[in-house]
Specification:
Elements (H helix, E strand, L loop, with lengths): L1 H5 L1 E3 L5 E3 L5 H7 L21 H6 L20 H8 L3 H8 L4 H5 L16 E3 L5 E3 H10 L15 E2 L1 H13 L1
Antiparallel strand pairs: 1-2, 3-4, 3-5
């Protein structure tokens, strides 16, 4: 009550008039109190550190404890996005004529998980993981479990003829 009386001034006729200059007491009194249990924090990472192994092969040996971002996305600059919108109908028709090749390739890592290089004579394990033949045989000498999922392979693998065909078709379309 005393603070209210301090901020009121009476003019010559005796009518109460509010001060035109705000005092510190009035500023504090007029502030809206924010809730103490809600905190909003916004963190924007303008340079995300992407896990190189995961981006190249789709597999990271550190798993969930990896401190880098597990993303295989490729981002385009604004001008590149604008160019993509201007693609002619002829280009759209060419991309649709590959017979669903893109759908098949997305299920398979495009590089060997062990050597992190393009497939050289690819093979497939009984748990449907793909490796280079040389990488797989070198790995089997040390451990017969699958490098990706850890299941027992018993040292057996088949030639990945479908992957060879898909890679050959992809190279021809480029």
């Amino acid at each position: 009550m005393a603070s209210d009386l301090d901020s009121i001034k009476k003019n010559d006729s005796g009518d109460p008039v509010q001060f035109s200059m705000r005092t510190d007491k009035n500023k504090i009194k007029n502030q809206i109190k924010q809730p103490t249990n809600v905190r909003t924090t916004l963190l924007v990472d303008y340079q995300p550190d992407v896990c190189k192994d995961y981006k190249q092969t789709g597999f990271c040996g550190y798993g969930d404890s990896c401190k880098f971002l597990h993303s295989r996305d490729d981002f385009k600059a604004g001008w590149k996005l604008n160019q993509d919108w201007k693609i002619s109908d002829d280009d759209d028709n060419k991309n649709n004529d590959n017979g669903g090749l893109d759908d098949k390739i997305t299920d398979i890592p495009f590089k060997c998980v062990i050597c992190k290089d393009d497939y050289k004579t690819p093979i497939v394990t009984n748990c449907n993981h793909y490796f280079c033949s040389k990488c797989f045989t070198d790995r089997v000498r040390k451990d017969t479990n699958c490098f990706i999922c850890g299941k027992e392979t018993n040292g057996t693998a088949k030639s990945a003829k479908t992957l060879q065909k898909l890679l050959k078709d992809r190279d021809q379309n480029k």
